[in-house]
């Protein structure tokens, strides 16, 4: 039985904050639930004129709903490379017909030890020799494009395989942020870039503009031959200005955070296999806030319907 002091305290607080007729049932149930660890449930039900059986029934319904949301959050987190934070999980839940606040999602993620990958500082590699070519910045930070392959950007990043640094090259379509080509290898050179072009499934002649920073790996004669052969216009960032290639930089931030971090690669074949799986997920499933929380391929499919 609750002690008299506890009962009187509950009654005092209840009278201070509520009159029996001033709150709806849901509000009363919430107040009782939130204070059940401090005061007698029976006393609070008396104060707020709520039948105890009604409270226990409504509270059990709330618990079931909480469990359902919690399991949905865990599922979404696990299905998406364990990288989504509260914003993207909220967007997925909304698509599934569940309205859940980011604060509640964050609380349930913390409860279950679900930590988004965007926290640990990343290794900063040494810079490549600069390309002093006279080629101008034709892209001019116009990162929004209306047609597929209107502009493709590229960059390289690093990943440790066993005890040696290896490198990844990506080709990204500015139209829908799709990774249209990729490669990985032990050398940071033009051959890596060439293999990324070779992996593109579409017609390279459809690429109108190719933009990169001034890294020396993008100035090899082989790359120049590719550009000329397929009549692709070239564009280079201004020296020392990473913002000119911001989309490629942002994509590699995702790669380093979502794919490289917390993984251990023992061989180049393993890296190739897992990179291929990640790119497939990135293009087909991963939602992007800049695309209205659609995946790159879904965004392109929806856009192409409007073009017809």
Can you put this structure into words, describing what you see?
This protein is α/β, with parallel strands linked by helices and 308 residues long. It has helices spanning 4-17, 25-35, 41-48, 52-79, 86-95, 102-111, 190-198, 221-229, 246-260, 268-284, 296-307; strands spanning 152-161, 164-173, 178-185, 209-212, 233-236. It has a five-stranded mixed β-sheet, with helices on both faces. The mean pLDDT is 84.
What attributes does this structure have?
nucleic acid binding, Nucleotidyltransferase, domain 5, 308 residues, single chain, five-stranded mixed beta sheet, alpha/beta, RNaseH_sf, Integrase_cat-core, elongated
Brief sketch in words of this structure:
This protein is of the alpha/beta class and 308 residues long. It is 46% helix and 12% strand. Residues 144-303 form the Integrase catalytic domain.
């Amino acid at each position: 039985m609750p002690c008299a002091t506890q009962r009187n305290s509950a009654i005092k607080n209840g009278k201070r904050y509520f009159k029996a007729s001033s709150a709806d049932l849901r509000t009363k149930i919430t107040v009782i639930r939130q204070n059940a660890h401090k005061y007698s449930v029976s006393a609070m039900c008396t104060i707020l004129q709520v039948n105890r059986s009604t409270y226990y029934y409504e509270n059990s319904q709330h618990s079931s709903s909480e469990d359902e949301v919690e399991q949905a959050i865990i599922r979404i987190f696990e299905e998406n490379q364990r990288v989504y934070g509260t914003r993207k999980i909220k967007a997925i839940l909304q698509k599934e017909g569940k309205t859940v606040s980011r604060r509640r999602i964050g609380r349930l993620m913390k409860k279950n030890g679900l930590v988004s990958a965007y926290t640990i500082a990343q290794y900063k590699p040494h810079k490549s020799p600069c390309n002093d070519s006279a080629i101008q910045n034709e892209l001019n930070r116009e990162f929004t494009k209306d047609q597929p392959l209107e502009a493709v950007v590229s960059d390289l990043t690093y990943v440790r395989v066993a005890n040696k640094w290896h490198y990844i090259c990506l080709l990204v379509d500015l139209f829908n942020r799709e990774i249209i080509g990729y490669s990985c290898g032990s050398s940071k050179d033009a051959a890596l870039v060439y293999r990324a072009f070779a992996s593109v499934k579409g017609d390279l002649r459809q690429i109108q503009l190719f933009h990169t920073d001034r890294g020396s790996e993008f100035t090899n004669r082989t790359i120049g031959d590719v550009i000329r052969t397929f009549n692709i216009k070239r564009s280079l960032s201004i020296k020392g200005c990473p913002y000119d290639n911001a989309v490629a930089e942002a994509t590699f931030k995702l790669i380093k955070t979502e794919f490289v971090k917390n993984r251990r690669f023992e061989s180049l074949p393993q890296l190739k296999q897992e990179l291929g799986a990640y790119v497939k997920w990135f293009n087909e499933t991963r939602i992007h806030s800049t695309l209205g929380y659609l995946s790159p391929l879904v965004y392109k499919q929806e856009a192409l319907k409007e073009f017809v």
